[in-house]
TrEMBL record:
<dbReference type="InterPro" id="IPR040980">
    <property type="entry name" value="SWI2_SNF2"/>
</dbReference>
<dbReference type="GO" id="GO:0009035">
    <property type="term" value="F:type I site-specific deoxyribonuclease activity"/>
</dbReference>
<comment type="similarity">
    <text>Belongs to the HsdR family.</text>
</comment>
<keyword id="KW-0255">Endonuclease</keyword>
<dbReference type="Pfam" id="PF04313">
    <property type="entry name" value="HSDR_N"/>
</dbReference>
<protein>
    <recommendedName>
        <fullName>type I site-specific deoxyribonuclease</fullName>
        <ecNumber>3.1.21.3</ecNumber>
    </recommendedName>
</protein>
<dbReference type="GO" id="GO:0005524">
    <property type="term" value="F:ATP binding"/>
</dbReference>
<dbReference type="InterPro" id="IPR007409">
    <property type="entry name" value="Restrct_endonuc_type1_HsdR_N"/>
</dbReference>
<keyword id="KW-0547">Nucleotide-binding</keyword>
<keyword id="KW-0238">DNA-binding</keyword>
<keyword id="KW-0378">Hydrolase</keyword>
<dbReference type="GO" id="GO:0009307">
    <property type="term" value="P:DNA restriction-modification system"/>
</dbReference>
<feature type="domain" description="SWI2/SNF2 ATPase">
    <location>
        <begin position="129"/>
        <end position="177"/>
    </location>
</feature>
<feature type="domain" description="Restriction endonuclease type I HsdR N-terminal">
    <location>
        <begin position="2"/>
        <end position="68"/>
    </location>
</feature>
<keyword id="KW-0680">Restriction system</keyword>
<keyword id="KW-0540">Nuclease</keyword>
<dbReference type="Pfam" id="PF18766">
    <property type="entry name" value="SWI2_SNF2"/>
</dbReference>
Length: 180
């Protein structure tokens, strides 16, 4: 199933039969990966991918690995502050009423979507600023630049957080770097 907004395919929902005991929810995840290869144009404007067996449902982004697909667990935090307001095994219904409520879906896109660019903003940031004047520019980089013609801080602002190689080694996220 495809969710369209102004003619653009913004979400792809892959559904499996909940009464089929052999149905594998993660086969749906692999099917979405197949779409990425076989029909990439479908996913160019994509915001969300959903996999569900009709009862349980997971949502993730186009580039998310399996472990990054998660349950959407609320309809409206103001009205239903507790997770799973419709009860156990009603994930899909909760997601549809919560995340895919039109105003909330638009707010999600406006507030939480990142646009994963290839460094072109460093070369010419003005078109990005002109096209998205209210957007917050945030860079995730392992190699911040600081040269006369390209400067990460000049384009994206001051650092919000720094996770350096020493911290990564202490956390076990990377192995020590040996220089020869």
């Amino acid at each position: 199933m495809v969710v369209y907004g102004n003619g653009l395919p913004l979400a792809v929902v892959e559904l499996k039969n909940p009464v089929n005991e052999k149905a594998d929810i993660w086969a749906e995840f692999r099917q979405l990966r197949t779409y990425k290869t076989d029909i990439p144009d479908l996913l160019i404007p994509n915001v969300l991918l959903v996999i569900s067996d009709g009862l349980e449902a997971w949502v993730g982004s186009l580039s998310a690995a399996e472990e990054r697909f998660l349950h959407w667990r609320t309809i409206d935090p103001r009205d239903h502050p507790d997770p799973d307001p419709l009860g156990q095994h009603r994930d899909l219904e909760t997601m549809v009423q919560g995340l895919f409520q039109p105003q909330r879906f638009l707010e999600f896109m406006r507030s939480f979507c990142l646009f994963e660019e290839n460094g072109a903003a460093m070369d010419s940031p003005k078109p990005y600023r002109d096209a998205l004047p209210a957007a917050t520019s945030l860079a995730f980089t392992g190699t911040p630049l600081s040269r006369d013609d390209r400067d990460t801080r000049a384009v994206f602002g001051n650092y919000v957080s720094v996770y350096d190689i020493q911290q990564a080694m202490e956390d076990g996220a990377t192995v020590p770097i040996a220089r020869r």
